[in-house]
Amino acid sequence: MSRGVSRTSEWGRDNGLTFRMFGVMFLLIALYLGFMAVLVVSGTEFTFIAIIAIGILGVQYFFSDKLALWSVGAKEVTPEQAPELHAMVERLAQIADLPKPKVAVADTNVPNAFATGRNPNNAAVAVTRGLMSRLNREELEGVIAHELAHIRNRDVMVMTLASFFAVVAQMIMRMMFFTGAGRQRGGGNNGAGAIMLVWLASLLVWVISYFLIRALSRYREFAADRGAALITGSPQALISALMKISGVMDRVPQQDLREVSDMNAFFIIPAASGGGFSEIFSTHPALERRIESLRELQRQMEGM
């Protein structure tokens, strides 16, 4: 591995991811400043909207970890309850130069894992019983290292905050749809025009936010795959884990997948995905592309 890739401090540096995270947040903030200007020009009373938006932002920032665990029924486990899992997380966290995150287990047969938390000091790694029962030790290490890489890259919180913009835009669209008729009757043509302007602006903001977030989400998976491979020193172990999880997910009953679908964007393998054109709508890159990227990293690490 001498000529290829260093497993020390270099693993956590992904300038491409950092650039994209700042870029997406800058574009989303600029987009919403423009949206606020539309609200002002249209004469829309947005004090109530602002209060709700601030409330949503506060909940996402301070309680996103608890909400994420709750959404899939994951419960924090102690070292006494899961000694091997805790030991594995602690060892890999030390390699990644991270404080040990909380460890949680979801009692579902769906094989998957995710990381959550607003920063490395308030993070949690969750795995499902379906995952632990199907992967060997090396594969499980690869998956946990992938989640630790997300924590190290701080992309979990960026994704959570970025999704806030889409949530608010969707909320405004629904409010205008359900309350617009009454305002139109009271405000005449001018009122109807203002309502349509705000609704179209909300739709535009939601669409742009949707695609920006998904583009960032796909790239962050590549970055976490790379980080995991460098933490463990074994890209092949993660390749094996990804292939095994993907194969099992295809056979999991749809009802089980729907029960955990709220965390689809944060799973190591999405509960539902597609290739080709549909990838632009996906939160994850195609499995084939992830595997090829890891194989290329393997060649670099072997000095080829």
Provide keyphrases for this structure:
304 residues; alpha+beta; four-stranded mixed beta sheet; 9 helices; 4 strands
Would you kindly provide a written description of the structure presented here, covering whatever features stand out?
The protein is an alpha+beta fold and 304 residues long. α3 packs across α5, α5 crosses α6 and α6 packs across α9. The longest helix has 78 residues. It is elongated, with a radius of gyration of 21 Å. The N terminus is likely disordered.
Low-confidence stretches: 1-6, 181-186
Radius of gyration: 21 Å
Share of residues in helices? 55-70%
Return the string of H and E elements. HHEHEEEHHHHHH
Strand order of the largest sheet: 1-2-4-3
List the helices and strands and how they pair.
Blueprint: H1 15-42, H2 47-71, E1 74-76, H3 83-95, E2 102-106, E3 113-117, E4 123-128, H4 129-134, H5 137-153, H6 155-232, H7 235-249, H8 254-259, H9 287-301
Parallel strand pairs: 2-4
Antiparallel strand pairs: 1-2, 3-4
Helix pairs in contact: 1-6, 2-6, 3-5, 5-6, 5-7, 6-7, 6-9, 7-9
